Amino acid sequence: MHTIIFIAYLMFFSWLITRIRFNRKSELAPVLLVFFFVFRVITGCIYGWVHSLQPDYQTTMDTWKFFSDGLNETKLLINDPAAFFKELVRNPYQGGFGRFFSTSDSYWNDLKHNIMIKFAGILNLFSGSNYYVNIIFYNFIVFFGPVALYRSVRYFTSENKNIYLFLCFLFPTTVFWTCGFHKEGLLFTSVSLIIFYCLKAFYSTWRWTSVLMIIFLFGLIFLLRNNIIFALVPAWLLWMLSHHFPKKTQVIFVSGVVFFLLLFFTSKYFIPRLDLPESVRQRQIEFMLLGGNTYVQMDTLQPNVMGFVKHLPIAADMAFLRPHPGEGSFFYIPFTIESVTVIVFAILALTRKRKPMPDKPFLYFMLMYAIGLLLLIGYTITNTGAVIRYRSIAFPFLLMALALIINWSSFRKNRASIKF
């Protein structure tokens, strides 16, 4: 019976995505939209199946734990809808709403899990409480993410369509981690839609619906993974400012980065409880205690300027270069290739720069957000497997910015000049 339901829903949503105006405005052929959607659904099912091979997967694998706990949430939603929603604001800890950045004994950390199991509980009403049918619903929702990012890039170029299609819809890390039932899909979609609605406002007019959507998306990111805010908001604010003063883009971003770094390291002097360097250190220690099969041994970060400077090479290695060739199982090979791809794109962006570059404020925003988030990941996470998942919502934006900088036409010119 579940197989019939799965096929029926897959056919229905494959048709529906071709009828939604937002998707049609991407100017992608309906058959291509259906292909990308079905591909993502299949990848999401593979994601779930791979995690189901682990021992006690329903309690040890997040994606299956969301589903298992969501079954009880479905019963609660049916029997007591008020209690279902009240649980989102219930705090079982005596310390109140503190421990904002902690990964244990924290209302904010628990809220991330609670949102996901409530979401699963709602989806179960329509899927007959089947994990793989939930994957179809989930991918229908997060499909707006890659479409929004693709449409955003097309504001600036109509060339090299296949490169941007690959980065938006088929990039291995992003596809694998955002198609399975986890927070990454919602986070990637939220960031992509924020970019899309901002660009739409810049090149059209600000509408109250766009403003409300942007506020909602920032709120969702804050609730699901609040540390992303520290990479996204500063970059976003500088983007807003430099858009109005495009000739001063470089000055705005350089001075802005300096300002936010000073704010980061001096936060404890203004608000003693908000010691951001110490919060990063504590988060790193919590990840160290988790261990794991791909744990990387390293010294504990010291919460001062020199400590962060000394740890920078390690953070950059963790975020940009892991897994190293030969590290981990064969499953890690595609992710090693991705790291090499980032290096190649960076070299090409430096040596084959497009002139003039499209919309510098947008490019600087993308680079600042992606690099800032990746370094934050490198400073806090000590497990290669976790790094691969967390950076899945950073690499696409970094590569997209680099791809927009690269002068791809120079390759065609070089080919044309070769004589045989």
Question: Can you walk me through this structure?
Answer:
Helix content is 73%, strand content 0%. The protein contains 22 helices and no strands. The termini are far apart. The protein is globular, with a radius of gyration of 22 Å. It is mainly α.
Number of helices: 22
Helix content: over 70%
List SSEs in N-to-C order: HHHHHHHHHHHHHHHHHHHHHH
Strand residue percentage: under 5%
How far do the termini sit from each other? 62 Å
Question: Radius of gyration from the CA trace?
Answer: 22 Å
Mean pLDDT, to the nearest integer, reads 89
Principal-axes shape call: globular
Compute the number of strand runs.
0
Main β sheet profile? none
Helices and strands: which structural class?
Answer: mainly alpha
Low-confidence parts lasting 5 or more residues at pLDDT below 50? 415-420
